[in-house]
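Worked example 3 (structure in, sequence out).
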């Protein structure tokens, strides 16, 4: 499904709430305070719309409680549209676009977009150990620098600093993009150790850093980019590179520049879009709903059929 802007979930408070409820609670409301499903809907004019009472812990709640939408003054249909717009755009949506399209202030649009990026941060279900790769699996690891663009610099001011990002991609699996303080063996190793199983076949470029970290894995192959040796059998890092190309189009084309403070949030968004891409059979609506599910406090990985 593509986004049909006439859908009442983007205009009508009740329709938007019903949609958020059906996505968050496919089996009926669940108390965000204690997890109980013994609940009563509070109807009548004396109650706030959408208010539900938990019969177990006696606390009231609505669908936005315990989510990135909690205590927001932005109307629910605008949140739903924000989720759909951001989830369906490969190149990203700027806060200026959201401000115009949702009819909210620029400040509110910025806040909403940052909250939605937070919802897109979906942690995998693991016992705390790495979850990418494994025996016979290939993971590509590559680094790039993202940040300001020379073209936007005026009056001889120095070029805004670019900041390093590591991308890990399991072939046929998930991708992680992490901002790192610097590209040293120590920083890159930390990211790899956290996410990639040691039994993995690691693919990198031929940098000194890669040489160091490659030793931690069952097998390591490296391609020499400086010699135009991009593809040698299955030794390549093209998947990571396509992701970086997408990230750069997004950062420079849509947001123009991204500060170091917020860089990880933009990387999280790009990672979410990549992991929920349409070639995996996930359409715009399903992708938006995955982000809405990620909006609740307890973050879960919603595994997709491959
Ligand atoms: Zn409860």
């Amino acid at each position: 499904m593509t986004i049909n802007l006439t859908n009442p979930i983007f205009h009508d408070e009740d329709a938007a709430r019903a949609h958020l409820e059906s996505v968050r609670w496919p089996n009926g409301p669940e108390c965000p305070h204690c997890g109980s499903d013994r609940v009563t809907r509070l109807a009548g004019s004396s109650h706030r719309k959408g208010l539900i009472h938990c019969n177990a812990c006696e606390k009231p709640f609505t669908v936005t409680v315990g989510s990135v939408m909690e205590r927001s003054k932005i109307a629910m249909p605008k949140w739903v549209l924000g989720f759909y717009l951001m989830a369906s755009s490969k190149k990203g949506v700027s806060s200026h676009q959201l401000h115009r399209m949702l009819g909210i202030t620029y400040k509110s649009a910025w806040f909403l977009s940052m909250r939605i990026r937070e919802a897109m941060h979906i942690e995998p279900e693991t016992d705390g150990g790495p979850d990418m790769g494994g025996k016979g699996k290939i993971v590509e690891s590559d680094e790039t620098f993202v940040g300001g663009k020379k073209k936007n610099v005026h009056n001889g001011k120095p070029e805004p600093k670019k900041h390093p990002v590591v991308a890990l991609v399991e072939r046929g699996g998930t991708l992680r993009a992490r901002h790192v303080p610097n590209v040293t063996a120590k920083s890159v190793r930390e990211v790899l150790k956290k996410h990639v199983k040691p039994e993995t076949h690691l693919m990198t470029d031929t940098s000194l850093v890669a040489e160091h970290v490659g030793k931690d894995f069952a097998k390591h192959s490296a391609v020499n980019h400086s010699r135009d040796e991009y593809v040698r059998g299955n030794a390549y890092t093209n998947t990571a590179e396509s992701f970086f190309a997408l990230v750069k189009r997004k950062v420079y084309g849509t947001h123009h520049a991204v500060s170091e403070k917020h860089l990880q949030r933009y990387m999280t968004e790009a990672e979410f879009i990549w992991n929920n891409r349409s070639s995996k059979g996930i359409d715009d609506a399903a992708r938006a709903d995955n982000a809405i599910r990620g909006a609740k406090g307890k973050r879960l990985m919603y595994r997709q059929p491959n």
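Notes: The two ends are 19 Å apart (CA to CA). The domain at 138-271 is CATH 3.30.420.10 (Nucleotidyltransferase; domain 5).
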